[in-house]
Amino acid sequence: MAIEFRQIPALAGQRTSLPLGLTPVAWPVLTAFLAGSVGLALAFAATAGYARKETVTGFLAPASGALRVVPVRAGTLASVMVANGDRVAAGDALFVLDTRHALEDGSTLDAALRRSLAQQAEFLAEQIAAEEARSASEVERVAARITGLEAELVALSEQRRLQVERAAVTGERLKALSDLRAKGYVSEAEYRAREEAWLSQRQNLAVLDQQITATKAEIAQTRVQRAQLPAETADRLARLRSSLADLRQREAEVAAQGAQVIRAPAAGRVTALQAAPGQRVDPQKPVLTLVPEAAALQAELFVPSRAIGFVDTGQRVRLMYDAFPFQRFGAYGGVVADVSETVLAPDEIIGPVRAQEPVYRVAVTLDRATVDAFGRQVPLQADMTVTADIVLEERSLLEWLLEPLMSARGRM
């Protein structure tokens, strides 16, 4: 069956309508609005900047350097003579350090050491006195020996004189007997007896000469010994007295270790006093810091090695002091003044901050050395810790958005 389409008279005069709320004029306006929005977004992305920053930590320190006073050994603070802000001169007493260690019997190690050293010193003093007495006795003995030898030499010389006379008399008699023997008045046996007597006298004379020579040699040797005695005694006494002096010095050191007065190595203002009487201290941690008078402060920041390549002198730094929370007191500015060329290991950092990785030291000149707090300007102090934002790189948002595409293109 065929279907016939016929126009309904009631609808013959109507036109097909556009979507609700739109008119032919609204389409160009919408297109222009969208194009303008995109243009504004692109313009904003091209002009608005985005900074890549590195947040680091550090502390304030005098630009000319600060003196951190540390105890020479672990101990207890017996008293503290200064307070933060005090000005001291070189040599002024800062605090008294007590390094005595208690033993099980209630005494102290220092007292035990002093007793031991005193006993050793007493023993050495006795040795010195004994050496002096022995030396005097030895001098007397040697002098007496020389006197005895000289007397013995005199006696031997007299014996020799007499022996020479006896030998001469015996020789003359032997000569007379020789003449009588030739004439037959003396028997051969009597002559031989006289000859043996003369030879015996000559032998006795030779023995006396040997004794005299030996006695003279012994006298000379004993005199040399007597001459050497003072030097030998002085050398032994010098060694003993040197050992005694070392013991006395050790006694003084032990006594000084018991209660040691730590003095200021240079003039300055006391800051960062971190201990009180009765507190244990050790050489790893400074008790206080001395800041030179009129020394300008700077921030010493520690930048990780991964970011140091983007840090250079002249860069701006945003500083936030931990003692003055920036949410309430705001942030302050500074300029990078110096970048170290050597890396520091975490254990090489000396100061109130610690690092977890190798870092570089960056010195920052402060825009101002005060903080606006409580209606007044509060001066900053050395060793105050600080958190800082260092701007490493600035780009527009468009450059950041297009960076992946540019990187991909560079790799093609």
TrEMBL record:
Keywords: Coiled coil, Membrane, Transmembrane, Transmembrane helix. Residues 299-391 form the AprE-like beta-barrel domain. The chain crosses the membrane at residues 25-45. Residues 114-159 form a coiled coil. It comes from the Bacteria. PANTHER family: EXPORTED PROTEIN (PTHR30386:SF28), MEMBRANE FUSION SUBUNIT OF EMRAB-TOLC MULTIDRUG EFFLUX PUMP (PTHR30386). This is HlyD family secretion protein. It comes from Rhodospirillum centenum (strain ATCC 51521 / SW).
